[in-house]
Model the fold of this input.
Amino acid sequence: MAANDREVLHALNENYVRSVAESDVRWFDENLSQDFLNTNPDCSIVDRAGFLKRISNPVGVAGLHPEDVNIRLFGDFAIIHARTVYTKPDGSQGTGRYTDIWARQGGRWLCVAAHVARG
Done:
């Protein structure tokens, strides 16, 4: 089961980052828990509705992708730590880190919280 869970979480992580890059609100609506909270790089916290509203706007960077992904499983709970790299509008390279917290609810993995930092 753990190997399959790891594969599922890896795919969810890839789609999470893709959905940020593509402003894919539908994907997030299907994969966030109802009580989801996100800590933004400016230290503010938004709830699910606030996050979906923010995601609906273009991200403003190009080539956003994850690196150094570390998936930690704890039964029905998982933490994903990773680094992002992207190109800023001025052409310079940007990096960030994120931690996503996932819980198995109703037989499927849902993201319950996220924390984003940018360098």
Summary: Residues 79 and 101 are 5 Å apart (CA to CA). Strands lie at 32-39, 45-47, 62-73, 77-87, 93-105, 108-118.
